[in-house]
């Protein structure tokens, strides 16, 4: 139990940790900070010898059966809207809020910038870690700064967009896991910014007259619900592997051997491949290994078929990685975080 000058008491308890893969998991010591001030007070006098493992909605994590490292859960859920000028609004959201609740609120106010990122599971605080992205938009396109507690400096500080080192499903928060606790995320949204409708399945909206931000959100939700299994019914963590990026020469040679391979050209003679296509063509869709499975409609999604553990999921992932290496000479990288026991 940790008490503060304010009289506030933060108690740590043993509790099971809900996660979207429905893996059995117990945290030996889970601290809960109800708001940002309580979180900062707790972190300033962190009572444990090791840094906390921050748990949000656990929708992008592969959890072990027991987490010995102390955990920290942030309950803060406020959102502050600050008008910049007649077109632009700064939105500061607390880490503990569900990401899609934030998107819904912003879209409800006619604010543009987050609509393509609708219906992504997880919390606001988790969004910068993997630089969430969908349908041609990434969080880094709209992010202004992140308020963190930085254990290296033993203090809170604001990190600019540049300091976050964002890349495809990557950031400093992923690279230096454990160093930062994300407290609030500040975004810059707009009432007028053009929609991004480049991505295949939402391109149809470009022909729509008087398109509203709400209509884009609805379409994105419809596409996601059709393609990705609902974690509430079929436990999963979304895309399990990153889409690999290879040099142009390798992509051309792969295309000769595998006509029809999906390829997206990138700047700098690089090509992004669709991991889902690679796994699908290798025959994995709808298969199972022990208590883990590959979803029958989307080969990029691994599922818990009931009572699976971290080991079952990782064994299936390893079998897939091996097969992709042998078939295409490509290394697949696991996208969600793997938490040590
Ligand atoms: N494909 C197959 N078979 C499959 C799955 C996909 O042939 O079983 C093909 C599709 O037909 C398509 C291509 O592979 O031509 C790419 O698939 P899709 O459009 O479904 O997108 P993705 O590359 O699988 C990425 C993100 C998703 C994001 C969508 C939309 C990654 C790893 N995944 O998926 O992000 O929602 O694009 O932007 O970048 C996530 O990160 O959890 C996630 C769901």
Provide a descriptive summary of the structure in words:
The protein has 341 residues and is of the alpha+beta class. The chain folds into 3 domains: 73 residues, Uridine Diphospho-n-acetylenolpyruvylglucosamine Reductase, domain 2 (2-Layer Sandwich), CATH 3.30.43; 149 residues, Uridine Diphospho-n-acetylenolpyruvylglucosamine Reductase, domain 3 (2-Layer Sandwich); 94 residues, Uridine Diphospho-n-acetylenolpyruvylglucosamine Reductase, domain 1 (Alpha-Beta Complex), CATH 3.90.78. The chain is built from 7 helices and 22 strands. Strands 3, 4, 5, 7 and 8 form a 5-stranded mixed sheet that branches. It has a 5-stranded antiparallel sheet with strand order 9-10-15-13-14, covered by helices on one side. A hairpin with a 4-residue loop joins strand 13 and strand 14. Uridine-diphosphate-2(N-acetylglucosaminyl) butyric acid binds next to helix 6.
Q: What shape does the CA trace take?
A: globular
CATH architecture of the largest domain: 2-Layer Sandwich
CATH class value of the largest domain: Alpha Beta
Distance between the termini: 23 Å
């Amino acid at each position: 139990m940790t008490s503060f000058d304010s009289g506030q008491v933060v108690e740590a308890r043993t509790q099971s940790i809900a996660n979207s893969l429905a893996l059995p998991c117990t945290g030996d010591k889970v601290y809960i900070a109800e708001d940002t001030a309580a979180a900062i007070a707790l972190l300033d006098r962190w009572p444990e010898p090791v840094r906390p493992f921050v748990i949000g909605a656990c929708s992008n994590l592969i959890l072990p059966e027991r987490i010995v490292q102390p955990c920290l859960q942030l309950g803060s859920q406020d959102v502050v809207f600050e008008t910049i000028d007649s077109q632009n609004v700064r939105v500061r959201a607390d880490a503990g809020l569900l990401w899609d609740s934030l998107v819904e609120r912003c879209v409800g106010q006619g604010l543009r910038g987050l609509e393509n990122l609708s219906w992504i599971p997880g919390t606001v605080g988790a969004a910068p870690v993997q630089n969430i992205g969908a349908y041609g938009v990434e969080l880094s396109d709209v992010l202004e700064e992140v308020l963190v507690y930085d254990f290296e400096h033993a203090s809170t500080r604001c990190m600019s967009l540049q300091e976050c080192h964002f890349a495809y499903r990557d950031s400093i928060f992923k690279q230096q896991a454990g160093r930062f606790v994300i407290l609030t995320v500040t975004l810059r949204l707009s009432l007028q910014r053009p929609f991004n409708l480049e991505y295949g399945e939402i391109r149809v909206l470009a022909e729509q007259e008087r398109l509203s931000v709400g209509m884009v959100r609805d379409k994105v939700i419809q596409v996601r619900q059709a393609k990705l299994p609902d974690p509430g019914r079929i436990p999963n963590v979304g895309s399990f592997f990153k889409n690999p990026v290879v040099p142009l020469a390798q992509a051309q040679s792969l295309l000769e051997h595998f006509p029809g391979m999906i390829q997206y050209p990138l700047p700098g003679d690089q090509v992004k491949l669709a991991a889902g296509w690679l796994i699908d063509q290798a025959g994995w869709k709808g298969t199972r290994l022990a208590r883990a499975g590959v979803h029958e409609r989307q080969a990029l999604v691994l599922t818990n078929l009931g009572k699976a553990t971290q080991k079952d999921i990782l064994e299936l992932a390893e079998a897939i990685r091996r097969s992709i290496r042998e078939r295409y000479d490509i290394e697949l990288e696991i996208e969600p975080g793997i938490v040590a026991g």
